[in-house]
Amino acid sequence: MEKRLNLLMFSGDYDKAMAGLILANSAREINIEVTMFFTFWGLLLLRDPEKIDMEGKSLYEKMFSTLTPKDIEQLPLSKMNYAGLGKAMMKEMLEDEDAPPLIAFLKGARKKQVKFLACKLSVDILGFKQEEFYPEVEIVDAKVYLEDALKSDIQLFI
Amino acid sequence: MEKRLNLLMFSGDYDKAMAGLILANSAREINIEVTMFFTFWGLLLLRDPEKIDMEGKSLYEKMFSTLTPKDIEQLPLSKMNYAGLGKAMMKEMLEDEDAPPLIAFLKGARKKQVKFLACKLSVDILGFKQEEFYPEVEIVDAKVYLEDALKSDIQLFI
Amino acid sequence: MEKRLNLLMFSGDYDKAMAGLILANSAREINIEVTMFFTFWGLLLLRDPEKIDMEGKSLYEKMFSTLTPKDIEQLPLSKMNYAGLGKAMMKEMLEDEDAPPLIAFLKGARKKQVKFLACKLSVDILGFKQEEFYPEVEIVDAKVYLEDALKSDIQLFI
After folding, report:
1. What is the CATH number of domain A2-155?
2. What are the φ and ψ backbone dihedral angles of B117, each rounded to 5 degrees?
3. Which of A34, B154, C44, C79 could form a disulfide with C12 if both were Cys (CB 3.0 to 4.6 A apart)?
4. At B102, is the pLDDT very low, low, confident or very high (cuts 50, 70, 90)?
């Protein structure tokens, strides 16, 4: 029977998002089905930068939408404090190894049919709209996540 | 057979605690058994604010007990640095959606018979006492956690 | 059949590394097989401090190698901000309880035959070399991690 990987993407950190998306891409390459359920800061990964739309947002939602990075390459590292190792340095190190940037792993996951779910409660709280996400993103509640996770062979909270 | 969810709650962040408690509540609503094992900063979620007791604590334990938030609504966000999105702003956004605060999800989990375990080693290191926790909290070692996790269908480290 | 625990060690935080290594040691004591797959900051746990070698590293790799803590006891806490609870205070609290330091749990895990895997992509990006790690560390790709995780009964992302 087909094996399944389920990733709960809570974090919006560049390095953690990369860890999750590398796992998702690698899993698809060996025919493992992958579901990624994005919640809280993880939702920042799902926004289509071309489609951000302020209409109908509350003041806080507008502020949140304006102040958070629309380009996922601008997401921060989870650790900036190892003696000043900065994001710029990390990106240079990636380039030195010809490692693709985060956006390439996101594109790869989309192309490889990873299932993208977004947590309805988080979407409502943070004021996102369906139209702001990539079109394949489905907005679902925590029960849909749990049912998918129950069917999966590996579940991780990232 | 009954399905089981096992959450290892390491973090004492407001947003991560909320993610864990929303999963716990949602799981109980669809009849999944839930165990939450609290360790390190996660233990801050289990203290009954009415029952904090300094007697017999070492100087460091007293400092720790005094300086950490007794009211879980005061716990920090895991990210404060997305362009200044602060805790206050997040709480306003929760209220705008009529989303309950963290304490309501904790009360819900207690009412719905989520099993609360506390890690003995962490309890000892941080100087907590059984009487300071909610009465249903059981203090157990990592092996009890592992045995529960082995029987579970989903295990997450939050 | 033998039970298996699989830990993906992403974090290089002192407290999270301790949580992971305590689980690994406890699991071995009840005959659970343990694999730890180290990636990103987690790789800092695998360096043999006696064997750090700058030869052939790029400028960024040298900076990274020089600036990150070689002694794992110097790794930072994931939270320093709970009202100033610092690393020094945490270490005093550990000593008060005669709890072993992180390095003791790492030694225990090595002695108890925990399987140590290092993520090839992270090793390349951060510029580590096989000879800098403890000798039993195997450098493998994400697919080897996934295959091990699929065979495991518990999988956690730490």
Report:
1. 3.40.1260.10
2. -115, 145
3. C44
4. very high
Best residue in B80, B150, B154, B158 for a mutation probing chain C (most C CBs within 10 Å): B150
Q: Chains A and C: how many Cβ contacts under 8 Å? A: 76
Is B158 an interface residue toward C (CB < 8 Å)? no
Q: Is B11 helix (H, G, I), strand (E, B) or coil?
A: coil
Q: Which long-range contacts does A100-105 make (Cβ < 8 Å, 24+ apart)?
A: A101/A73, A102/A14, A102/A17, A102/A18, A102/A21, A102/A72, A102/A73, A102/A75, A103/A72, A103/A73, A105/A18, A105/A21, A105/A22, A105/A24, A105/A25
Determine, for residues A125 and B82 on separate chains, whether the beta-carbon distance falls below 8 Å.
no
Mean pLDDT of C21-31: 98
Query: Measured between CB atoms, does A71 come within 8 Å of chain B?
Result: no
DSSP H helices, chain B, are 14-29, 59-67, 87-96, 102-111, 120-126, 142-150
SS3 C156: strand
Axis-axis angle for helices B14-29, B102-111 (nearest 10): 30
Q: What percent helix, strand, coil does chain A show, rounded to 5?
A: 50, 15, 35
Kindly report, residue by residue over A44-96, the tens digit of the pLDDT.
999 999 998 899 999 888 888 888 888 998 888 887 655 446 787 888 888 88
Task: Provide the ipTM.
Answer: 0.94
pLDDT tens digits for range C97-127: 888 999 999 999 999 999 999 999 999 999 9
Query: In this complex, is the C-beta atom of A35 within 8 Å of any C-beta atom belonging to chain C?
Result: no
Domain boundaries, chain C: 2-155
What backbone phi and psi angles, to 5 degrees, belong to B69? -65, 125
Minimum mean pLDDT range among B36-45, C51-60, C70-79: C70-79
Q: Where are the beta strands (DSSP E) in A26-136?
A: 33-38, 115-119
Taking 70 as the threshold, does the pLDDT of residue B14 lie above it?
yes
pLDDT at position B85: 61
